[in-house]
Amino acid sequence: MATYIIGDLQGCFDELMQLLKQIDYDPAQDELWFAGDIVNRGPKSLECLQFVKNLNAQGKAKMVLGNHDFQLLAAYCGLHDYASKSDTLGDILSHSEVDKLIDWLRQQPLMIHHPLHPVALVHAGVPPQWCIDEALSHAKEVESILRGDQWQDFIRNHLFGAKPKQWHDGLQGWARLRYIANAFTRMRYCNAEGKLEFKQKNKPKPGASTRTDYLPWFAHANRRNKTSDIFFGHWSTLGVMDAYHVHSIDTGCLWGGYLTAYCLETHKRHTLSCNIICQPKTKC
Which domain holds residue 131? Predict the structure, then answer.
């Protein structure tokens, strides 16, 4: 049995099938963990969503929610303010079983922790001030809302936005939930206290003049979540990284990079070279 953690699909279904064939994936024995953003921008978002959902129903796959998965929830709720011309969610939204697909998607977690290995999976990251147990507890706060009757109210009126950027234990209500969701699905850079910075998206460059208090979330010396190796997607420009007890999994398949599957048991990366599907500032 093998557990493979797979980077952001974003609708790249054909590439996923090729990668699974390459690694001799056995659905009877192996388990797949998906790092979120299984939909949007690529050509086959519906197929990706159906594939992960079906495997999950069989107990053979898990996933965490990413920002593009939230984008699908928002589109379903009729929220178009944050829609992009590059969105490719139409096949899902017009599908006869869209209600079932959305109901399943909103049940998915923001963070999962392996029952046997000291390994956690999130889409974007874990703020340095949270230990693993605290992070799992905070993730459950948002998960509880998404799985309840107020989920559409949360998506429409309270999910989107960049504030509050600073975490403190006294945060309450929708502001608290928004920070938690942003940290798990959008974070790249923050300061040592977990203040989020959304403008920087490129990988750090040695010697570049950047604000020294804002570092990649995993690079802070005071980070309290080093007791588990953390796998994350979201940051395709970062490239391959296995350091600081963290492992980057989004290697930019959507942009002509690679689709990655990391085997927990062998600590080996498997990659598939992808054709360029989307390019910045173009429709896809």
Answer: 3-273
